[in-house]
Automatic annotation (TrEMBL):
<dbReference type="InterPro" id="IPR036661">
    <property type="entry name" value="Luciferase-like_sf"/>
</dbReference>
<dbReference type="InterPro" id="IPR011251">
    <property type="entry name" value="Luciferase-like_dom"/>
</dbReference>
<protein>
    <recommendedName>
        <fullName>Alkanesulfonate monooxygenase</fullName>
        <ecNumber>1.14.14.5</ecNumber>
    </recommendedName>
</protein>
<keyword id="KW-0285">Flavoprotein</keyword>
<dbReference type="InterPro" id="IPR019911">
    <property type="entry name" value="Alkanesulphonate_mOase_FMN-dep"/>
</dbReference>
<keyword id="KW-0560">Oxidoreductase</keyword>
<dbReference type="GO" id="GO:0046306">
    <property type="term" value="P:alkanesulfonate catabolic process"/>
</dbReference>
<feature type="domain" description="Luciferase-like">
    <location>
        <begin position="1"/>
        <end position="323"/>
    </location>
</feature>
<comment type="function">
    <text>Catalyzes the desulfonation of aliphatic sulfonates.</text>
</comment>
<dbReference type="InterPro" id="IPR050172">
    <property type="entry name" value="SsuD_RutA_monooxygenase"/>
</dbReference>
<keyword id="KW-0503">Monooxygenase</keyword>
<dbReference type="Pfam" id="PF00296">
    <property type="entry name" value="Bac_luciferase"/>
</dbReference>
<comment type="similarity">
    <text>Belongs to the SsuD family.</text>
</comment>
<keyword id="KW-0288">FMN</keyword>
<dbReference type="GO" id="GO:0008726">
    <property type="term" value="F:alkanesulfonate monooxygenase activity"/>
</dbReference>
Length: 380
């Protein structure tokens, strides 16, 4: 199992649905999170993409010089980027980072946001374009000169002069729950990424993707993106889960759900369906809580509990085929430490050993600075 964390380039805080306890995300704060995650043994970080986020490529580039081994999962946006330019960006980033790039393929899911970026294609047509985009992107990074005349894209002599370090290209991660998305993932992705759903739903999705990939003569690995609230006791974890949404009122929920309803993303529709019950009935599977999705788009579920219980839930997903988790928690700096300290020892992780502090702490603390040294004896 590999664990990645999340860089909240759209803002961070202690609570959802309020400015109370909110903190702006600037270069210094992103650097704090990235350096902490790098030292704690996380595999990498996901940087989100969208009109409400800082640009992920530029943000990730600023974090390269201040980290040592951390990998960066950064989005390419078919329809918003040229595949040749995106291939050149990926190759440059991969070389200059020493092979620390992972690629997140994002076709988009909000027609209003996409229109603001100049893209006016319906859901399935976007995935047709994405298929063409990735066909070109992969060939160019493999060293080929591409001549392509498709339904949506045309390239005449596309080429990447300087190849990436990772061969044949940085790994492609792909999420999407629709039939169109699964078809593209089966053709192109190395890792299929799902949001956190109950195990039976994840099992069905994995089987569907595996079957589609098999028809293409390929195999795909699987990852999951979700939030986490792990505490020393089950009681404290659930108390903190409720505290996270204590400022979220019904008006805020209705406003958020109204926005999510316009999305044509099947994944977002599945997330929204998980929290349509009573606010007091958001535990949709033991220790899987849908409270985050009341007001947050995208990943809307969290694992909640003590370290042993959360580890058991993670192992359930691992048995289904989930090999990688992308986790996050509010606030992201403090929760990165908490997860590493409480949960990592309970899991079979492919991570470097985490540096441990001293086995005991001095009882004097800052008082030790005020203790007068012993008076020297004459002649000593």
């Amino acid at each position: 199992m590999k664990i990645l964390w999340f860089i909240p380039t759209h803002g961070d805080g202690r609570y959802l649905g309020t400015t109370d306890g909110a903190r702006p995300v600037d270069a210094k704060y992103m650097r704090q999170i990235a350096q902490a995650v790098d030292a704690l043994g996380y595999e990498g970080v996901l940087l989100p993409t969208g009109s409400s986020c800082e640009d992920p490529w530029i943000a990730a580039s600023t974090l390269l010089p201040v980290t040592e081994r951390l990998k960066f999962l950064v989005a390419v946006r078919p329809g918003l980027m040229s595949p040749t330019v995106a291939a050149r960006m990926a190759s440059t980033f991969d070389r200059l980072s020493g092979g620390r790039l992972l690629i997140n393929v994002v076709a988009g899911g909000d027609p209003v946001e996409l229109a603001g970026d100049g893209l006016f294609l319906d859901h399935d047509t976007r995935y047709e374009l994405t298929n063409e985009f990735l066909h070109i992107w992969r060939k160019e990074l493999a060293g080929e000169t591409v001549h392509f005349d498709g339904k949506h894209l045309k390239i005449d002599g596309g080429k990447v002069v300087y190849p990436p370090l990772q061969e044949p290209h940085p790994p492609l991660w792909f999420g999407g729950s629709s039939d169109a998305a699964v078809d593209v993932a089966a053709k192109h992705s190395e890792v299929y990424l799902t949001w956190g759903e109950p195990p039976h739903a994840v099992k069905e999705k994995i089987a569907k993707v595996r079957a589609a990939a098999s028809k293409e003569g390929r195999t795909v690995r699987f990852g999951m993106r979700l939030h986490i609230i792990v505490r020393e006791t089950e009681e404290q974890a659930w108390k903190d889960a409720e505290a996270l949404i204590r400022h979220v009122d019904q008006a805020a929920i209705e406003d958020a759900q109204r926005i999510f309803a316009r999305f044509d993303s099947v994944g977002q529709q599945r997330m929204s369906q998980l929290n349509q019950t009573s606010r007091n009935d958001l535990e949709i599977y033991p220790n899987l809580w849908a409270g985050v999705g009341l007001v947050r788009g995208g990943a809307g579920t969290a694992l909640v509990g003590d370290p042993d219980t959360v580890a058991e839930r993670i192992k359930e997903y691992e048995e289904l085929g989930i090999e990688t988790l992308i986790l996050s928690g509010y606030p992201h700096l403090e929760e990165a430490y908490r997860v590493a300290e409480l949960l990592f020892p309970k899991l079979n992780l492919d991570t470097p050993s985490i540096p441990k502090g001293p086995s005991s702490i001095s009882p004097f603390g800052e008082l030790i600075a005020n203790v007068k040294p012993p008076t020297s004896k004459s002649g000593s």
